[in-house]
Zn(2)-C6 fungal-type domain-containing protein
Amino acid sequence: MADEGGGAVGNTRASVPPLERACDNCRTRKIRCDKRSPCSNCRASNSICKTSHDQKLPPRQRVLISNQYEKKIDGIEDRLSGVEDTLQSIAAHLGISGTSTSTPRTREQELKLYSMKPMTVLGAESPDVTSPFEGETAISAQSAFAKTLFERTVVTSPSAARSAEVHAALSSLRNIVDRQNIAPDVNHFRKVGRTRITPDNMELPPLEAVSAVLQRAQETLSLTLTCFYPFISIDMIRDMCENAYERRDLTNSQAIIMFGALFSFFDEARNNLREFSKDQCRQYSFLCQRNLLAAIHNLDLVMPATLENVMALSVSAAYSVEICKPSMTWIVTSTAASMCQTLGFHRLSTMRNDSKELASVKMHLFWFVYTMDKGLSLRLGRASTIQDYDISLPRGPSATAFPYLNDDMATSCWSEMARLQGLTYERLYSPAAFASSEDHRIILARQLESEFDQLYEIQKSLTFAELGGSPFAELLRIANRGTYHANKTLIYRVFPPTANGISSTFSSECVEAARSAIDAHLDCAARFKDDPEDEDYWPGYIHWAVLQAPFTPFMVVFCHIITSHSAEDLKRLSDFVLSFESSRHLSEGSDKLYRVCHVFHQVAKVYLEIKASEIQQQQQQQQQQQQQQQQQQPYPEPLNPQLPNQVNPMTIPNDQDQDFYSSADFENYLNALGIPNAPNANANMGWPAESATSINNNNNANNTTGTSAPDNSNVPMVGGPDLEDWFHMNKSILSLLEQDLGML
């Protein structure tokens, strides 16, 4: 029986196949299982032997990265960027340091931008961005004091609510003081997208529109090819368009050149292209601008030195000027200058075997880069990349490859103007110049004055015969006149104020040159800004003759208003600001320039009103004192002569217990900005204060301009650290044009 039972059991075990895995009880108790059904452990414990099998997961659907998903991802990233910009704006408004400014939402940000890869030229974005070097300056140290003073004297003032205009002017002035040390946004192009583009995913304007605008540019005078890109030809753009539309083969440098030219062509032809409406031209220009931004974003500064790459960098620099990004312009211009030297464009010996056309293109390209380099050197206060002693190139390129302006003298004058601008910084405003004596700088300034005068006489003699009766010839003459006086203003700033002159801070020549520069701009605005036939020239003038020119004339006139209380110059400043009001839409740069100039005009206007009110109140007090003396004396003494009314004084309230703003509220901020000789604030900078008595006792015998001549007996010399601080103040004001000015 035992054998039979044993045999039965053995037969049963042999007949049951082993399980694939241990039963649930054995796995729970973590003991060895013989994987029978039932297993020995379950039989011994009279437990139910059950084995659970793994359930197979259903196959997952394969996710395809399509354009729809990319658009969703881009939408999420754009929304996050908007949240980040909003937080940064709030932080900047609250005065939190260490935050970078957000990019203004202007025309460039309204573009429907492609996704692009990270830009190699700009590198990774870092939160620890420092301001670019601008030399030694005393402005930064006083900015914190001005901010604290504002919180104490303005925000807590009970008259703040009753003086809305004064409060607004002071708030804007405070924002300017606070923003002096914010780093410029050199990552502008990096923010426009995230992935690389190719001709296959670029949206191009219709081929018919491109052909029409190229035909117009060839048959008529093109401002783009004349001034902006003299090294580019219509045939070159046609070849690139053929590659883009037919073969879909276009390098990134070619895309920059092609879209940069087409963007300007469509912008010029928006009123004169018969086949297409103005709105269509604006749409095509907008489309080319979007593609240009995308191509610049993909620009790699670590690339081979070739003629095509230098052209692409030059077009990028020109576009950076238009959107008012001088720091970005400096980066691409310096790289282009280095490539020009690598390729030998600055040496005539390297072009001996080139054809006349190719050599002329190289020369024009070099002089374009040279002009940008020298102009930025003076504008930003940095040493230029290209040195004059290293150039063997003639300053008049061959006229055969310059079909739109065949006068070699014009190109020579522009390059010569750039050379003198470079010398102005080197001899008058560089650290080596400030280390020299004031007498030596004045001698060098007189030499530069003579050279500028000789050059301007040549410029006035240019006939521009090729232009015929074109309004463009008149525009060039006015632009040359404005640039000439702007440069002369910087030179005359070195001269000390003359005795019994029109200004206690600047020489008479400096003030007159600044006035002439602004008057030249006003003449150009009256001629071209609102003329429907010639308004196409106005945007180019704004971007190249105004935004590229030194900011000195405006600031000199502003300072002169503060120190001399000139109503005539206040009117001049007002007209200058109004000339930009209707042109704010042209570009981001023109809008920012209007904002900054508008703030300073409002400050000057309100300051003069308050100053006149204080003087009137002083006169009333003097009259009251004299009336009291008359009651005590049998014969009254004659009244003191009154100050001529230069501005309309504000009404003085009768309630003497009220708190009202005074000129000192403004002078502390003007002092923090480096505005020289601001009354009552001069003690902080070592300047002699101008008392009310000296204001009232000004002698107007020598006054021929309608303004009172301040007393110059206690005027300090303008050399040394004072001139250096003033020069750096000018650069600090210019740096505002690269920042978010939405709060001004």
Summary: The CA atoms of residues 166 and 606 lie 6 Å apart. Residues 147-181+481-744 form one domain. The two ends are 109 Å apart (CA to CA).
